[in-house]
Design goal:
Order of helices and strands: HHHHHEEEEHHEHEHEEEEEHEEH
Shape: elongated
Low-confidence stretches: none
Helix content: 25-40%
CATH topology of the largest domain: Major capsid protein gp5 fold
Structural class: alpha+beta
Mean pLDDT: 80
Distance between the termini: 119 Å
Number of helices: 11
CATH architecture of the largest domain: 2-Layer Sandwich
CATH superfamily of the largest domain: Major capsid protein gp5
Length: 409
């Protein structure tokens, strides 16, 4: 039987015996001093002795458990067992009072506990209880749908220099000839041109630990790096300076926008008006435009154009896959074209792109001090050349200048 249970039983028995003794004392007063029976006094004394021994034993066991636990600590909250032991220790004098004749224990143990309240995330959950979720991988930037090269003829080459024939017009024209009459002479102006292979490249350095511990990082940086390289390639094809490490861009050979003879004045010309006139300019030169390059802002302006009733003119523009069209001409949205400008032409036959080394990604662990630092160098690069074969098949300009040209008498 547990000590506490024995103590409780003894408390009840002692109470009963004390009650009997009190009754006998009262009876003795009435019956002229009759004393408490010796047997009752003996039983009561034995019970008090046993209660004292059990109380001392319980107290000693609590003290022993406290010492084994290293005593009371000021660090952190006390457990219920610690608070109980401390309460008994503070009231040990009352526990020993039994031996001095006290017939009941008289003390209360008070425990300072948290008040009952609502359970909230901010008050009831400690650090680390609620674990956050981590989305696997990196949210990648959406790749552009199209690049300039997607609309061009691309050829492989094994040489760093490309020689090509550029067509710059000619004189004369065939005609009908009567019997014995002189046939007209014609010629074509062909010029030998040279395109040098240029390199577009970038590199990154990653630790081996990052590559090993973050499984998606390699795919992310290489995909993102390749897309960024393509954006630079777009700008080089259109606007490369032709000096140093730059390609000779189409801008250097394309012809300026001009209103062809036979097209009257157009006041307040829209983007759609200008595109259609540029298409005619190219067609009169015996070529056919295959695409138009526009800045995303100008595409938005084009598609937001409304008629007199407020209806959108291009809300039902036909689509070829993901590419919008205007006048049956694919629209290529590219940041390479400056807002307010346009590039239109025969990208299939008017120029050719040559890949000396197609876009590739290589890993090096022996670059610089990579070996002793556990680093890996990632190189993203390509080598390419651009040949503008028919300059007259490309028309360039700004919308502001084109509006002025179309409004002139």
């Amino acid at each position: 039987m547990e000590l506490q249970e024995k103590l409780n039983q003894l408390d009840a028995a002692i109470d009963q015996k004390v009650k009997q003794a009190n009754e006998q004392v009262l009876l003795s007063v009435k019956e002229n001093g009759k004393m408490i029976e010796d047997s009752l006094k003996s039983e009561l004394a034995n019970m008090l002795t046993e209660h004292k021994e059990l109380s001392q034993k319980q107290y000693d066991e609590l003290q022993t458990s406290i010492k084994k636990a290293g005593g009371f600590s000021n660090q952190g909250p006390e457990s219920f067992e610690q608070m109980l032991a401390k309460g008994l220790d503070e009231n040990k004098g009352k526990l020993h009072a039994k031996k001095n004749g006290a017939d009941r224990l008289d003390f209360t143990l008070a425990f300072d506990q948290k008040a009952v309240g609502d359970m909230l995330v901010g008050t009831s959950l400690g650090t680390g209880v609620m674990q956050p979720n981590l989305r696997a991988g990196v949210v990648e930037r959406q790749a552009y749908f199209n690049h300039v090269r997607d609309f061009m003829t691309v050829r492989p080459t094994s040489s760093p220099i490309i020689h090509y024939i550029q067509e710059n017009g000619g004189e004369g024209s065939p005609t009908t000839v009567a019997e014995g009459a002189l046939k007209p002479q014609i010629d074509y102006d062909l010029v030998l041109k040279t395109a040098e292979i240029k390199k577009i490249a970038a590199h990154l350095r990653l630790s081996e630990e990052m590559i090993e511990d973050v499984p998606y990082i390699t795919n992310y940086v290489t995909t993102r790096g390749a897309e960024d390289l393509r954006l630079v390639e777009d700008a080089q094809i259109l606007y490369g300076s032709g000096t140093g490490s730059d390609l000779r861009g189409l801008n250097l050979d394309a012809v300026a926008f001009a209103r062809p003879a036979g097209i009257g004045t157009i006041a307040n010309a829209t983007i759609a008006d200008i595109v259609r006139v540029a298409m005619a300019q190219i067609r009169i030169g015996r070529y056919r435009a295959t695409a138009i390059m526009l800045n995303p802002i100008d595409v938005a302006v084009l598609e937001l154009t409304k008629d007199a009733q407020g209806g959108y003119l291009f809300v039902n523009t036909a689509n070829q896959g993901a590419v919008s069209t205007i006048w049956r001409l694919p629209i290529i949205e590219t940041d390479a074209v400056t807002a307010g400008s346009f590039f239109i032409g025969d990208f299939t036959n008017g120029a050719e792109l040559y890949d000396r080394k197609a876009l590739n990604v290589r890993f090096y662990d022996q670059d610089r001090d990579n070996a002793i630092r556990n680093m890996v160098t990632i190189v993203i690069e390509e080598r390419l050349g651009l040949a503008t074969i028919r300059p007259a098949s490309f028309v360039k300009g700004t919308f502001a200048a084109a509006r002025t040209a179309l409004a002139a008498a």
